């Protein structure tokens, strides 16, 4: 005979409490999983942490239009936004896993094992992966599964106690005890997970800390110093960007969710492929080469018209063309592929490297040892090309090859092979939608056509005739050129200012608006100002 249960079905409040408990079980298990992953990743490398590995794979797999959209919407915050998105999805899945687990514990555990599997797959699919890269995610999956099984069992004990009459071991006291146990274990799990997670991150940071090694780098004086930049290169207009961009303000564009931390004492650069004399050089050997200073404006192909992904720095480094000539390039080679510590590949046309222009294996930026975010200990810079075809950060390998036999990272994603910088100009003063008094208004900005140089800049108001702007002193074709223009007799009302530049070859910047993909944006920058 079936025994009558004391309550037919739990009330609404009781059901909500049960759902909350199930969700808590899922969240606690997820926290434990992530904590375990971070702890193990302290030993296998920050890039192998499950969340980072999944995030990096997401970056690599994101279709180009979506990536462009993300860069446009979130700019340099695209990475925090991506990580926040991954955590949000994890929380959601953890809640669901908890709800499943209290009914079907094995299914709940399977969800965590599957999480772990996805993380392990992501970590192993990195080009820099070793077998150990899978360990953090495997640990995360197993810990998550074990914890969710434990918590599901506690949860069920509490439910059973509520259904069992007091004489048979149930009743209010038994229920309270079982619930308390569930809450203590869940809370304890979250606490331990937090310690493991944050502790793992801290341990990882300590283990990969290269601050001291970077500070210990002694930069030799340049064998070939850059000429002084004359004051006349920068019009004294308040609000105009400085001629040289301070390192702290220099734009940063890369796919690295965790910055590669390379101890220069462990660093080596291998030069191989279609060369007569393959060589591997150490950081000391690099510093012993004659170092050259090069003032150069670096820009990103993803920069929109008028956008911020451009900056000028004084780079110090060894001549890249000289090194390539010593290695002896074999005939037929036409591409130099730079590989970074984090697995990025960047392909540069060899023609550009051998046509006489300066190009560096840079070790310093604006008088400071290369910042970690900008490629410490060594990156390439090649005037005239966007960063994605020339400026490999955290460079560890140079392979001389052909375009026919290898597509580097961005080319695999549809971007152009050459990456020649297109002529660009922008109005910086007045700022868009600024209010300015009537009369003469100073307009100023920056233009660049790296390696071709800027020969002219013109400004026009409300589709009127183009007027020549005053060009600041040209320092080098590899640098941007600043300009100013006195807009005479500005009248009250809203006006549109436009700018266009002419490069050193005499080509006028085209008006057609094309987006950055696949080989750089074109179009004239304009700003609307209110004369009041
Ligand atoms: N290792 C690595 N190097 C890289 C990239 C990257 O994603 N990874 N991005 C390139 C791109 S697209 C640009 S525009 C420049 C930006 O250099 P910066 O961050 O120092 O300004 O670095 C280039 N070098
Ligand atoms: Mo870029």
Overview of the molecule:
It is a single chain. This protein is of the alpha+beta class. It folds into three domains: 11-208, no CATH class; 231-412, Oxidoreductase, molybdopterin-binding domain (Sulfite Oxidase, Chain A, domain 2, Alpha-Beta Complex), CATH 3.90.420; 424-531, Sandwich (Immunoglobulin-like). Helix content is 37%, strand content 22%. Strands 2-1-10-5-6 form a five-stranded mixed sheet. Strand 1 (268-273) and strand 2 form a beta hairpin. Mean pLDDT is 95; it is low at 1-7. The chain binds the ligand Nc1nc2c(c(=O)[nH]1)N[C@H]1C(S)=C(S)[C@@H](COP(=O)(O)O)O[C@H]1N2 and molybdenum atom. Ligand MTE binds at residues 250-256, 298, 300, 340, 342, 344, 346, 374, 387-388, 391-394. The chain crosses the membrane at residues 81-102, 109-128, 134-153, 182-200. Keywords: Membrane, Signal, Transmembrane, Transmembrane helix.
Summarize this, please?
The chain is α+β, with helices and mostly antiparallel strands and 532 residues long.
Number of separate structural domains: 3
Q: In percent, how helical is the residue content?
A: 25-40%
Integer-rounded radius of gyration:
30 Å
Give the total of beta strands. Answer: 19
Give the percentage of residues in beta strands.
Answer: 15-25%
Distance between the termini: 91 Å
Number of helices: 12
**Low-pLDDT segments, ≥5 res:** 1-7
In order across it, which strands form the biggest sheet? 2-1-10-5-6
> Which geometry do the CA atoms define?
globular
Query: What is the overall pLDDT average?
Result: 95
Main pleated-sheet profile = 5 strands, mixed
Q: Which small-molecule ligands are present, each listed once? A: the ligand Nc1nc2c(c(=O)[nH]1)N[C@H]1C(S)=C(S)[C@@H](COP(=O)(O)O)O[C@H]1N2, molybdenum atom
Helix/strand structural class: alpha+beta
Protein name: Sulfite oxidase
Signal peptide: 1-35
InterPro entries: Ig_E-set, OxRdtase_Mopterin-bd_dom, OxRdtase_Mopterin-bd_sf
Domain Oxidoreductase molybdopterin-binding: 258-405
């Amino acid at each position: 005979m079936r025994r009558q249960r004391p309550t037919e079905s739990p009330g609404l409040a009781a059901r909500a409490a049960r759902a909350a408990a199930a969700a808590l079980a899922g969240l606690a298990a997820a926290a434990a999983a992530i904590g375990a992953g971070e702890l193990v990743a302290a030993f296998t490398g920050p890039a192998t942490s499950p969340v980072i590995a999944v995030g990096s794979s997401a970056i690599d797999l994101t279709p180009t239009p979506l990536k462009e959209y993300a860069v446009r919407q979130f700019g340099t915050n695209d990475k925090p936004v991506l990580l926040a998105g991954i955590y949000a999805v994890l929380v959601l899945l953890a809640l669901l896993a908890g709800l499943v687990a209290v009914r079907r514990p094995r299914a709940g555990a399977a969800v965590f094992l599957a999480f772990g599997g996805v993380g392990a797959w992501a970590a192993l699919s990195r080009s820099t992966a070793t077998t150990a890269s899978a360990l953090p995610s495997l640990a995360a999956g197993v810990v998550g599964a074990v914890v969710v099984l434990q918590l599901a069992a506690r949860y069920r004990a509490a439910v059973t106690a509520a259904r069992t009459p007091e004489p048979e071991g149930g009743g209010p006291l038994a229920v309270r005890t079982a619930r308390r146990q569930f809450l203590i274990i869940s809370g304890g799990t979250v606490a331990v997970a937090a310690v493991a997670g944050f502790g793992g991150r801290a341990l990882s940071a300590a283990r990969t800390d290269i601050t001291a090694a970077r500070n210990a780098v002694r930069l030799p004086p340049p064998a070939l110093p850059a000429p002084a930049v004359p004051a006349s290169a920068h019009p004294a207009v308040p609000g105009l960007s400085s001629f040289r961009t301070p390192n702290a303000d220099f734009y940063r564009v890369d796919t690295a969710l965790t910055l590669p931390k390379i101890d220069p004492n462990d660093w080596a650069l291998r030069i191989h492929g279609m060369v007569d004399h393959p060589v591997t050089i150490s950081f000391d050997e690099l510093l012993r080469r004659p170092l050259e200073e090069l003032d150069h404006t670096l820009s990103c192909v993803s920069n929109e018209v008028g956008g911020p992904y451009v900056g000028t720095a004084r780079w110090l480094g060894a001549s890249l063309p000289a090194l390539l000539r010593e290695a002896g390039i074999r005939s037929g080679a036409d591409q130099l592929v730079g590989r970074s510590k984090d697995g990025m590949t960047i392909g540069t046309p060899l023609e550009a490297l051998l046509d006489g222009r300066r190009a560096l294996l840079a070790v310093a930026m604006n008088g400071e040892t290369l910042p970690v975010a900008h490629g410490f200990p060594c990156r390439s810079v090649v005037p005239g090309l966007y960063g994605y075809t020339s400026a490999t950060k955290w460079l560890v390998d140079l392979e001389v090859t052909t375009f026919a036999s290898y597509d580097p990272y961005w080319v695999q994603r549809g971007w152009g092979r050459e990456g020649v910088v297109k002529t660009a100009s922008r109005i910086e003063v007045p700022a868009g939608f600024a209010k300015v008094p009537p009369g003469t208004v100073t307009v100023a900005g920056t233009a660049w056509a790296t390696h071709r140089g800027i020969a002219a800049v013109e400004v026009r108001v409300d589709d009127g005739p183009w007027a020549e702007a005053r060009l600041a002193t040209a320092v080098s074709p590899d640098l941007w050129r600043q300009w100013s223009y006195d807009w005479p007799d500005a009248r009250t009302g809203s006006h549109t200012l436009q700018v266009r530049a002419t490069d050193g070859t005499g080509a006028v910047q085209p008006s057609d608006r094309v987006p950055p993909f696949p080989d750089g944006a074109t179009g004239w920058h304009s700003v609307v100002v209110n004369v009041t």
